[in-house]
Amino acid sequence: MKKSYLILPVLIFSLFLSGCTTTNTQNKEADSAINITTNKDSSSVPLPSQEDIVRTFINLISEKRIPEAVAMMDVTDEAQKQGWGVQLNSFESISLSKIENNGADAYKVTLKVKMKPESVNAPIPYYGFDNSDNIRWIGLRKGVDNLWKITGFATSPINLEENNTDSNAGEDNEICKKYTKEFVSSSTGKEIVRTKPFSMSGTISCSYFLSDNSFIIVVQDELSVEKQKQGLEYLGRILKTTPKIKRENIVVYQEDNNINSILLIINPNKFIRVDRSSLKALNNEEIIDFAVKVEEKM
How far apart are the first and last CA of the chain? Predict the structure, then answer.
């Protein structure tokens, strides 16, 4: 099999994407297609097929319902959500001309696309799309919550097992070495049971686990701060600052007024991001205090 190259968005970063249960109301048009469970007792209505999921995903992009399209994707990191938000918003128009099952939970699609002129400035001009018919492969992966998620666009058949593999897993990177688990533990007052490094495409991160499902993360990204702001705005985030941090910073709030992440700006194209899996890992006050400690060590 030819090696697959997934066209990733430039903006890559960690926040769990929470699934929702299927609803019988028709007020939220995308929910009935997005939230798929395998509980046969939950509804007598047939569940949408994988092909339906792909069609809904493309339709949401076409209708400029970008946050809903991102919510269908297999991304757990906030930066990845932001990056996909920017990329999916770069389509001036997109429509599905043809769809074929390619096996292994993947679909070969023909997309008729017109890109926004400004997307020529993307790291890959126009994100690799032509203003005409484009053949792509779209994969689906079922998560631990039994929800089908879109894995992204690929230029060749997708090997889901290969795409599932963490790069550099098990090897300490410079973030894990600089911000050790002992440092994170003493800075937060939380016991860190293990760490997990990750490195890919200019992004270096280290996750500090309090338990299997609860963690704190420190990410270093060499990305445009301005484009980060754009991605956050696409996701409906509220951007503020805190005087507790001396350097330029962005405190990202969700609609529920909880902090999503904190960016510590190094220069216009580089920053450190502090994040966590949930409020159980760090509450709003604790994540700000931890970001202060990280800044002091920068």
Answer: 44
Spatial contact of 179 and 217, defined as CB atoms under 8 Å apart: no
CATH 3.10.450-classified regions of the chain: 31-163
pLDDT values of the chain reduced to their tens digit, one per residue, 298 residues: 444 444 444 333 333 333 433 334 444 443 434 444 344 444 445 566 889 999 999 999 999 999 999 999 987 777 678 778 888 999 999 999 999 987 767 888 999 999 998 887 776 778 888 888 998 889 888 765 677 889 888 776 644 444 444 433 445 789 999 999 999 999 999 999 999 887 665 678 898 999 877 889 998 988 788 888 887 887 788 999 999 999 999 999 988 999 989 999 999 999 999 998 888 899 999 999 999 999 999 9
Of 145, 194, 141, 144, the C-alpha closest to 164 is 141
Q: How far apart are CA 75 and CA 207, in angstroms?
A: 16
Pick the CATH number of 31-163 from 3.30.70, 3.10.50, 3.10.450, 3.40.710: 3.10.450
193's CB contacts (< 8 A; 6+ apart) are 209, 210, 211
Cα separation, 66 vs 56, whole angstroms: 12
